[in-house]
Amino acid sequence: MGDLMGDAVGDMAEIDVAGLPAYPFIGPDDDPFTPVKGSDLDRFEGPIGKVRLPFGGWAWLVTRHEDVRQLLRHPGFSSDQYKPGFPVLNPIPPKQDDASGLFIFMDGDAHSRFRRMLTAEFMIKNIRRIEPLIEKDVIEALERMRSLGAPADLMNEFALPVPSMTICHLLGVPYADHDFFQHHSRVIMDRKSGPAEVEEALGALTVLLGNLVKAKRTDPGEDLLSRLVAERVVPGELREDELVSLAMLLLVAGHETTANMIGLSALVLLEHPEHLAALREDPGLAPGMVEELLRYLTVVRTGLPRLALEDAEIGGQKIRAGEGVVAMLAMSNRDSSVFGDPDEFDPKRREAHRHMAFGFGLHQCIGQPLARAELRIALLELARRFPGLRSERALADVPQRPMAVTFGVAELPVTW
Ligand code: HEM
Prior knowledge:
The chain has 14 helices and ten strands.
């Protein structure tokens, strides 16, 4: 990538953006297990270089494992996508007034104020508490799929409902509201929904969550919303509207990511029935297999964009304040200096846990214990209950979702 290396200092005005290589595109024609096309991989692996962004402008592309770690733990880079000059990878909606708790896009104290409130909630012991509920939902979804008869779309019947049911348990959405909650979260996540439908669904969920937050004052339960109401809202540390948008963030951040991981993981296991059988025989393999699936699939394929707020040096490259940077998690998870034979799926890989599928550093995924529990339970029950599971389509014919923040398959027709 030597020819792409620019002298970062002093050349901002002279950059020939049109002449830069295009940001590596993950198109619908590619093999779903290959995060970046071979030719792009050759061009972009190695030292940091400049790329032309899909919506104009340019950014530094960071692909090496160690460089990504260095970038993501550096406090001099912003996650605020509304800051001028922020490297835009996906069209972003206009800034919402009621988005006060979306701390994934915040920096510094504003970010840590919210994050700190959630740290204990996502500790393994709290996640263990809802594991039996996740298990029950997983089994229900699978048995419902069986009762509908083969062929069935595993995405629709299984991968998509599981994360929204889980978030209901986490937040403490009463059972009677589950269908309402799931219906509207599905509209929000469905790429076929028009902007008006999405807005309506967001409004309906905001009302539901708002009422729920109020109800938890008088009728608290053993759930995240009840605890945050009692410990933060009542003492005046957190406003109700902030708690509602925090809950929405958990829903949005935890839904597509986990659903696509369940769907793509099932696809990997359908392509490798020997691993599905091994999982059935030895459930103890599940945690390691989940780590390797997270590494191998890296569903946040577009990478994590950041804006430099100060001059910095990452991977030996000077980055100037005001310049955009993108951490390509999918490439750092295939860095051969960390992962031997990185393009191989090896469920017993010892170094799999070093993956960065959940990001790294300041914004590292807070929901990861929950995501791991969902994946482990979902894959174990799938292996256990559907020993004869087969894909209805050849790998090349499984439709992929067009380039989006999280990568996945659009549908996964299976039989058994
Ligand atoms: C396999 C599933 C998941 C994947 C691959 C994933 C991936 C990620 C990544 C890469 C980030 C870092 C974003 C950044 O640095 O800009 C992140 C942050 C985040 N994730 Fe996840 N996530 C998953 C599941 C979940 C779940 C289940 C939840 C919650 C219910 C969740 C909630 C969050 C939140 C709130 C943040 C923001 C953290 C912060 O800004 O400090 N995620 N996730």
